[in-house]
Design brief:
Helix content: 10-25%
Number of strands: 19
Order of helices and strands: EHHEHEEHEEEEEEEEEEEEEEE
Largest sheet: 5 strands, antiparallel
Distance between the termini: 58 Å
Strand content: 35-45%
């Protein structure tokens, strides 16, 4: 990972530099001055400074200590003059100053910022990526596609990988390499297709094409989406449901998986007013839904609850009695 301290005023305006780092396969995080002073750099291998010319004493002490720690690396762009020892210089302005000859190959892209970002990404692959441990996700084949990882809150077991194509004119074909913790199943979000199973010793490699100014989304789930467990009942004038998505070992997946709940009355008619869209709680792998019953409208008898997991399309149903 790479941490960023800002320029002493809690600003982050390097709108081309940040995605360029992502495109260059640098798993970059943005952190504040306060986080740096609180010791967050202990979690990182490297630090990038840009336009860094001022620091409070406590901020400087934290950065200086980091730079003197064996195995740690500090990078800085050419607009930074307040530099710790052994800083590796990035020979351009992170806010953007690509030479005309550098962006000539991207001349068909109508936006200067995008051309500048692509040029930066190529430079950063050589200057930064080559000097840090490889990340778990690496994308090759384009200087215009950036990977972003979104993490589940709390105790969640799933993450979302988003590949963004910054080229507004052309599709980009890329190859994705993922090497991560054991038993991580990769699903294509739009189609539910299972891409593969990644482990620390068995990476997954796949090819994809992303349309202009578009993205591809993947779910990285620690466990396979195998089946749906539903418990349904009725009491105190409420329909009550507990929904779990189970893995191949019948364990609840602690992931914010999207689900659709539909109720069918005793005459076999779906009740559209009772359709609910929600997601599994990533902390415990359980979704609880209570729905007040519209007594004057609904029949007593045997009802059916239908649940669909909306990534893979897996479905399940259960019958329950309503008096």
């Amino acid at each position: 990972h790479i941490a960023h301290t800002g320029s002493g005023i809690h600003a982050f305006d390097a709108s081309w530099f940040y995605p360029a780092l992502r495109i260059a396969n640098v798993p970059v995080d943005v952190v504040t001055d306060q986080q740096v002073k609180s010791g967050i750099l202990n979690e990182y291998k490297a630090l990038i400074l840009y336009n860094f010319n001022y620091a409070s004493r406590s901020l400087w002490n934290a950065i200086d200590k980091f730079s003197k720690t064996p195995g740690k690396i500090v990078f800085a762009d050419n607009q930074s003059n307040l530099l710790p020892r052994n800083t590796i210089k990035i020979p351009f302005n992170a806010l953007g100053d690509a030479p005309p000859q550098g962006i000539e190959k991207y001349k068909n892209i109508p936006y200067y910022g995008t051309r500048n970002m692509a040029w930066m990404a190529g430079q950063l692959r050589e200057i930064v990526s080559s000097k840090i441990p490889p990340g778990e996700i690496r994308v090759s084949g384009s200087e215009l596609v950036a990977p972003f990882l979104l993490h589940s809150r709390g105790k969640g077991q799933a993450r979302m990988l988003i590949l963004v194509n910054y080229d507004t004119t052309s599709s980009q074909a890329v190859q994705v390499f993922l090497q991560t913790e054991s038993d991580t199943v990769i699903y294509e979000f739009d189609t539910g297709k299972e891409i593969g199973l990644a482990t620390p010793t068995q990476p997954v490699l796949w090819n994809t094409t992303i349309k202009p100014a578009d993205w591809k989304i993947y779910l990285l789930c620690k466990g396979k989406i195998e089946k749906i467990d539903i418990k349904a009942g009725y009491s105190d004038d409420e329909f009550q449901f507990q929904i779990k998505i189970l893995d191949e070992n019948n364990r609840p997946l602690r992931a914010g998986l999207p689900v659709k709940l539909e109720l069918v009355d005793p005459e076999g008619s779906p009740i559209s007013e009772y359709v609910k869209y929600s997601a599994i709680n990533p902390d415990d792998g359980v979704l609880k839904i209570d729905i007040p019953r519209a007594k004057l409208m609904d029949f007593s008898g045997t009802w059916t609850a239908k649940v669909e997991e909306l990534i893979t399309g897996k479905k399940s149903s259960v019958k329950f009695s309503v008096k």
